[in-house]
Each structure stands twice: as structure tokens, then as C-alpha cells.
Design a protein that fits this description.
The structure holds two protein chains of two kinds. By secondary structure, chain A is mostly helical. Chain A contains five helices and no strands. In chain A, helix 1 (about 5-25) runs antiparallel to helix 2. Classes of the chains: A mainly alpha, B mainly alpha. At the A-B interface, helix 1, helix 3, helix 4 and helix 5 of A face helix 1, helix 3 and helix 4 of B.
Chain lengths: ~90, ~180
């Protein structure tokens, strides 16, 4: 792949990502943009049309929700949650 | 024609990469949220258990003092029925034991199992992220099962537990693909 082709690929890909993310966000104009850019017979278009309002919406929701880094999760696990000890039944009455 | 084929291949490659990115981001973020929610539920439940235990142990000691002062032998606690008998005996001495200590102790197992399972689940998440095969979903079910089991046992024990963290956990877990 030449440098120009690689650049074209990256440009197409980035556009595809942006348009797809917009499309799955239930924006009819973005869906039309995807159709216009890639054509009706394009696999990406077909996937957007087929799954745009289904599985990808969940993925988009996951991506756009508050994100956790590994450090966030580790910090949460370190600061919350603990093990407990049972009551000593033998010395219950003191 | 060549341009069209090249465009199609680029689009396919882009679509595959896009789905891979979406899947990975979705999986890791959702798994992280499930782990944080599960840990929050375990923390909430452990605090509820600790408060119940503190109150019950304090009442048991007060009951013992009252029994010794009155010269009454209190029943040893070896099972659920004898725990209930102890509550009744203490009540007769004017001491309210808020929870059956034997039943309360049965919450310890699932509560500690949930603690371990949640941390094991996070290890599995990190391993998946690093491309290492593991039984993430098996561990997810184990963690969910332990937390859910605790809530069920707490309900049976009459322990008041805030179920909001459990509901949040169940909701988050639905989104793990």
C-alpha cells in the first residue's frame, strides 16, 4: 500500500467511524450521509442500516458512558468492599 | 471497477476494525462498570452485615449479663432453632436481640465469596484486555451469584439491605456482551 493509499484508507476509516457513530445514534441525516458516502451496496452501509438501531446503539452507549481506566477500577476495589467475620457463637453471651 | 473493489475492501477493513474497536471498548468499559457496581453492592452489603452484627453482639452480651444476674442459664447457639430460642430467652430478660446470630453468620460465606469473586473477575477482565484466554463469563456468573445469594440470605435473615446497588449490578450485567 502506497503512502497515498494509506492516507486515503485512514481518511475513509475515520470518516466511516464518525459517520457510523453518528448514524447509530439514531440520526437519520447521518444514516443518509453513510449511504451517500459508501453506497447502498457497501458492506459498511449494510451493517449500519441493519444494526444501526440495534447492537451498535448498545456499544455506543457503553462508549459514551463515563469511562473507567484500569487505575479507576483498582482504586475502587482498594477503597470499597471488605471481608467480614462471623459472630462467635460460643462467646455470644460474653 | 478496480477503484470500486479497492473502496469496498477498504470499507470492509474499516468496518471490521470499527467493530473490533466497538467490541473491545464496549466489553472493557461494561465489564469495568459491572465490577465497580458489584463491588459497590458488596461494600453496601458488608456494611449492613457489620451494623447488624455489632448490634446483635452487643445485645448478646447484655443478655448474658442479665442472665447471669438472674441466675438463668441461657441456651447455647448451635443452629437456627437454638438461635431463635436465645432470642426468646433474652426477650424474657428484657433484652432485644435484633437478629438471629446463627442466621446472621450464614451471610458471611456469600459475602466473602463475593469479595473474592469480584477481584477475580477484575483479574479476568485485565487478562481479556491483554488478549489472554480465560473464563471471564464463568467468573462473572460466580460474582453475580455470590452477590445475589447474599441479598437473598439477608432478606431471609430479616436484615435491611439497600437493594439499589444490586439492581444497578443486575442492570449493568445485562450489557456485558
Amino acid at each position: 500500500m502506497s503512502s497515498d493509499q494509506a492516507t486515503a484508507f485512514k481518511t475513509d476509516f475515520v470518516k466511516g467511524v464518525i459517520l457510523t457513530l453518528s448514524a447509530v445514534n439514531h440520526d437519520p441525516s447521518a444514516v443518509m450521509s453513510v449511504l451517500g458516502m459508501f453506497g447502498y451496496s457497501n458492506p459498511l452501509t449494510a451493517l449500519v442500516v441493519k444494526y444501526g438501531s440495534l447492537g451498535l446503539a448498545e456499544a455506543l452507549k457503553a462508549i459514551t458512558a463515563p469511562t473507567f481506566t484500569d487505575a479507576d477500577v483498582e482504586a475502587h476495589l482498594a477503597s470499597k468492599g471488605f471481608k467480614v467475620e462471623p459472630i462467635s457463637l460460643e462467646s455470644f453471651y460474653g | 471497477m478496480r477503484h470500486s473493489v479497492a473502496t469496498t475492501y477498504r470499507a470492509i477493513a474499516g468496518a471490521v476494525a470499527l467493530f473490533f474497536i466497538l467490541y473491545c471498548a464496549s466489553f472493557d468499559q461494561t465489564a469495568s462498570r459491572v465490577i465497580v457496581a458489584a463491588n459497590g453492592a458488596q461494600d453496601s452489603a458488608a456494611q449492613a452485615y457489620t451494623e447488624a452484627k455489632t448490634a446483635t453482639v452487643a445485645a448478646g452480651k447484655t443478655c448474658g449479663e442479665a442472665g447471669r444476674a438472674a441466675g438463668i442459664a441461657l441456651p447455647p447457639i448451635t443452629d437456627k432453632a437454638s438461635g431463635a430460642a436465645a432470642i426468646a430467652a433474652c426477650k424474657a430478660l428484657g433484652v432485644n436481640v435484633p437478629y438471629n446470630p446463627f442466621v446472621l453468620n450464614q451471610l458471611v460465606g456469600p459475602l466473602n465469596a463475593a469479595y473474592d469473586a469480584i477481584r477475580g473477575l477484575n483479574d479476568a477482565r485485565v487478562a481479556v484486555k491483554a488478549g489472554q484466554a480465560n473464563d471471564f463469563y464463568g467468573m462473572l456468573n460466580k460474582a453475580l451469584g455470590a452477590v445475589t445469594q447474599f441479598y437473598a440470605a439477608a432478606k431471609e435473615a430479616g436484615l435491611t439491605v439497600n437493594v439499589a446497588p444490586l439492581e444497578r449490578l443486575q442492570e449493568e450485567a445485562k450489557h456485558v456482551k
